[in-house]
Amino acid sequence: MRLLDVRRLGLVCAAVAVTAGMVVAGCAEQVPGTATTDPAEVAAYQTSAAASASAAASSKAAAAQTKAISDNCTQFPTTTGAGVTAFNEFVTAHDHNSPDYADKREAAATTLDNAATKVETGVTAAAGALPADLAEKFTAYVVAARELSAETRKMTYSSQVTRLNDASRKINQARTAVHDACPSR
Q: Which of 148, 77, 139 is nearest to 109 (CA)?
């Protein structure tokens, strides 16, 4: 039995590969003509691409709106609750002629101003992502809180309370409107 010579085997393999390459290369042929596009296919592609881009933009806007609503509605009760508490403490001090009346008045006004600023900052940070009607309700609260703060600062023991009560009603209505417009948790 004779062993295969490695050099001869390598030579045979190389010759087969070159011959096969020539055959395959000889089969390649170019197609004559000019490439064109089908206008209907181009229009369909453009419509599909536009719809896809529109869907992506719509999805992004919906996500931004959901985040803006959540961010603003979640912090609202806590932020405004501090103003309610401070104002009620001031009213109690006023009704009882408490010695810390002036301190309670200033604390109430400052807390209301701070709540208004925080709510306003949240609406501004949402950069138009909040639904317009909800943004208007937040803004109405901001205006009412600043009005109540201003009326609170004007109060003395002998002041008429009519304007203070009116401002208090406005802020309560504005706070309720926001509460009712925000999704329940």
A: 148
pLDDT of residue 98: 93
List alpha helices for the chain, DSSP H: 6-27, 39-95, 101-125, 132-154, 162-181
Mapping DSSP to helix (H, G, I), strand (E, B) and coil, where does residue 131 land? Answer: coil
Give yes or no for a contact between 157 and 91, defined as CB atoms under 8 angstroms apart.
Answer: no
Coil, strand, or helix at residue 88? helix
pLDDT at 144: 98
What are the residues whose beta carbons fall under 8 Å from the beta carbon of 151, sequence distance 6 or more? 163, 164, 167
DSSP string, 132-169: HHHHHHHHHHHHHHHHHHHHHHH--TTS-SHHHHHHHH
Q: Which two tokens stand for residue 88?
A: 């009620």
For the entire predicted model, the pTM comes to: 0.69
pLDDT digits (tens, 9 = 90+) for 64-105: 899 999 999 999 999 999 999 999 999 999 999 999 999 999
Question: What angle do the packed helices 132-154 and 101-125 form, to 10 degrees?
Answer: 160
Q: If DSSP codes are grouped into helix, strand and coil, which group holds residue 98?
A: coil
State the Cα–Cα distance between residues 109 and 150, nearest whole angstrom: 7
Q: Give me 36's structure tokens.
A: 């064109």
